[in-house]
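**Folding the chain**
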Amino acid sequence: MQRILTGTNPGGIEMTGKLALTLLLSASAFFCAGALAAEEKKDRDTLVRDDLSEMRDSDLWIYNDVEKGFELARKTSKPLLIVFR
């Protein structure tokens, strides 16, 4: 049996429009996400400086004061971990 195609599919135009809209929305979301990631990306120096300022103000860490670290380790009878970077 031979199938004869005449004219266009009535839903063809609507489907093409939906496909174009979907592709447009996907592309715009992709590019917006990339732009946001680029804005939030910081260089290594900035990240290290931010971490350093947080550690200096923290009560959990003793930064750049070995004598204070040894004193606190003796008082609390806990081991001392020293990290060299």
